Amino acid sequence: MPRSERSPLLLAGLLAGMGVTHFAVPRPFDATIPRALPGSPRAWTYGSGVAELALAAGLALPKTRKAAALATAAFFVGVFPANIKMAVDWRHRPTPLKAAAIGRLPLQVPLVLWARSVAENTKGQS
Q1: For residue 126, is it within any domain?
Q2: I need a surface site. Which of 21, 22, 90, 117 has the fewest CB within 10 A?
Q3: Would 14 be classed as within a structural domain?
Q4: Which of 46, 28, 32, 117 minimizes the C-alpha distance to 79?
Q5: CB 86 within 8 A of CB 100
Q6: Which three-class secondary structure state does DSSP give residue 106?
Q7: DSSP state of 126
Q8: Where do transmembrane segments lie in this chain (predicted)?
Q9: 118, 61 in Cβ contact below 8 A?
Q10: How many domains is the chain built from?
Q11: Residue 78 and residue 48 in contact, taking contact as beta carbons nearer than 8 Å
Q12: Distance between CA 46 and CA 44 in Å, rounded?
C-alpha cells in the first residue's frame, strides 16, 4: 500500500486508540478538562472519546475522508487548551511526568498538519 494511502489509516488508528482509551482509562483525561467548561469533566472526556472514534471512522472511509480530515485538524486545535492545562497542572510533578506534559504541546502542530495533509491528498471526495 502506498504511503499516501496508509497515512489516513494510521491517523484513524491513532484517533481510534485514543478514543478507546478515553473510555477504558478516563481519569487522566478528566484531569485535563479546563474548569471553565460547563458540566462534568467525565462528560467531556467521554464526549472527546466519541469524537475521536467518529473522526477515526470518517478517516477510514474514502467517501468521508476529506471532511473527516479537516474536522480532525480542527479537533486537534480544539483540544490544545486541555494540553496546556495539563502542562500547567503538572509543573510540580516529577521530571519525567512534567517533561511528558510539556513535550505534548509542540506535538499538536504536526498532528494538525498531518490531518490537513490527509485532506489535501484526498482528491475528488467530500
Answers
A1: no
A2: 21
A3: yes
A4: 32
A5: no
A6: helix
A7: -
A8: 68-88
A9: no
A10: 1
A11: no
A12: 5
